[in-house]
Write a structure and sequence with these properties.
It is a single chain. The chain has about 325 residues and is of the alpha+beta class. It is built from six helices and 14 strands. Strands 4, 5, 6, 7, 8, 11, 12, 13 and 14 form a nine-stranded mixed β-sheet that branches. A hairpin with a 6-residue loop joins strand 13 and strand 14. It is globular. The two termini are about 35 Å apart.
Amino acid sequence: MPAPPGLAQDGAPADLPEVEQREFTLGAAEHGQRLDKVLAALVPEFSRSYLQQLLQQGAVQLNGRAGLKPAHKVGVGDALQVQMRPTEQSQAFRPEAMALQVVHEDPHLLVIDKPAGLVVHPAAGHWSGTLLNGLLARDAAAAALPRAGIVHRLDKDTSGLMVVARSRVAMEGLTRAIAAREVQRRYLAICWGRWSPGVQRCIDAPIGRDPRNRLRMAVVDLALHPGKTARTEVEGLASDGGLSLLRCRLHTGRTHQIRVHLASLGHPLVADALYGGAPAGALQRQALHAFSLALAHPVTGEALHWRAPLPADLQAALQALGLHYNDF
C-alpha cells in the first residue's frame, strides 16, 4: 500500500527537515533492552524500517559511539543521540520525469516496452531512476495505487513488455488474472548449448533462494528448502550448435524463473553472469526479451495482445551469432 499522507514509503515524514537532533538519557525502564527496541519506544512516530536505516547510517550514537548493532544492550544513564534526517529510501518514492515507450494506454491500463537497464521498483542500491519513479511523474493518479500500479516485474537487464494498472479496479483484476495464470507472457532468449529447432520442453521445477548463495535463486527440493512451484515452456527456434534461440512461455512468475530453469538444464542465458552465462555477440546484459503479452482487459473483458520488436542489441547479437529466425 502507498504510504499514509505526509509519510514517505519507509515511514519517515516526507517533509523531514535536513537534520533534527534528539537527545535522551536512558532510565531504569530501558536498562538491558535492545537498542532498536528502545529507539522504537522513544520515537514511535517513525517506522522501525526508517530507524533501522538511521542505525546503519551512523545517525544514532550511544555515549558518543555510532555504528552499533540493533541488538546492542543499553544501560541506565546512557546518553542516546538520534539525528532524524532523510534517508535514501524515504526519498525514493518520488516523481522523476523519464521517457517511457508506451505501447498501449487507456483509463485503466498502461503497457510499456521496458528497456534493458531500467530497474522496475526502488530497492537497496536503486532508490531513484526506477520505472516506479517515472510512473509517478507521468500520471498523478499513480500515487494513489500500491507500487504506482505495478503488478509484475522484469529484471533490470531484461527488456520488453509490462502491463501497469492505472485504476484500483484494474489493479485488482490484473492481480487476480496473474494469480490465476490467465496472463500470457512470452520471451525470446539466447542461451548456450544446442537446443534443436522445434524441440519443445516443459520445465516444471520449484524455485527458491539458493541455499549456497543468497544472491541467487535456484531449483530446489521443497522437502529440504523453501520455494515455490515454477513452470516454463520452452521451444527451440534456431541453433548453430553452440548457441540457441529459444521461445519461452511463463506459467508462473517466480524471480529469475527463465534464467534459473535454463541454467539448471545446462543452458544459461548469454551474458547472464549470475547464472554462469558467458558473453557472446557483444551483449552487455542477459539475452532475454519479453516480446509478447496477452490478457483479457480487467474492466471491459476485451482480449488484448501486444508484441514488442527485439531491441537493437539483441538484433545485432542474433546477426553476429548467425541465429536467424523471423517469426517469433
